[in-house]
Amino acid sequence: MITLIVRRVGELLLLLLGISFLVFGSMYIAPGDPASMIGGPTATEADLENIRENLGLNDPFLVQYGRYLGNAVQGDFGYSYQTKQSVADAIAVRFPNTLKLAIASMVVAVVIGLVAGLISALRHNSWLDFTSTTFALAGISIPNFWLGALLILVFAVNLQWLPVGGLSEPFYTAEGFKQLILPAITLGTGSAAMIARMTRSSMLEVVRADYVRTARAKGVKETKVIWVHTLKNAMIPVITVIGLNFGFLLGGTIITEKVFAINGVGRLMIDAIAMRDFPLVQGSVLLVATLFVVVNLIVDIVYTYVDPRIKYE
Predict the structure, then answer these.
(1) pLDDT in tens, 292-306
(2) Residues 138 and 179 reside in one and the same domain
(3) Which ranges does the record mark as transmembrane (predicted)?
């Protein structure tokens, strides 16, 4: 296990190096002049040239990238062109909202997905199975922005049960919990549908295995057959889907944050791209990439606890 963690950390560093190079290169060749965005419409050509010189934008690409990489290793990701705020500080302020939204969405997805998948598998070819598979198809097909707008219209505007958006209050308060409900459902529905489909297919495969039939033939209670012999062995592909979806949720909250006016990393990234605020874009992308790889490492570790037969060489 220690060998696995060390190897994955090394892979993480190499992956982040490649991602940083690609992101920095994309920002370098992207249309638009950061100096013009900073100087504004009243800046003269001399002012723009002075800004480029101060920011090091006149240096060759490899020189700029090497300087950025050296600073990033020390935890310095630069400063926002627009707000002059440290990139690390700007992300630190927004990241808790994104993390809360991703965790809440994942809870919604896991609860709904596992329950729907189990019911569908245990009542195979029944109306419950048909209802569950229809829900899964609808959950995958419905776009987040449409579902979010619909939920706002029904529950926030018409019924006025829940707030329209924002995560201004702590999640453990009543108001903060209410603010999380609609965006969590909006973001978690698609993941719930995928988890439900994977749970159903994995359960149907395992429930036909010889050891399950043997357990039933020996008189083992049905509840124990399901929860001990079947579900645990069916969880490996489900855990994979859960881990991948959580990684995507951490970096894929952009649309939901926009719809519900949540000040998260996704919204920060979109605004930074629109303003050609390259340091903010690079820092946000590196954060998302790091989180995605870390989540996958955690999934690999969880495998060994769910199924001790899995060994990493």
Answers:
(1) 878 877 877 777 776
(2) yes
(3) 12-30, 101-122, 134-157, 177-196, 234-255, 285-306
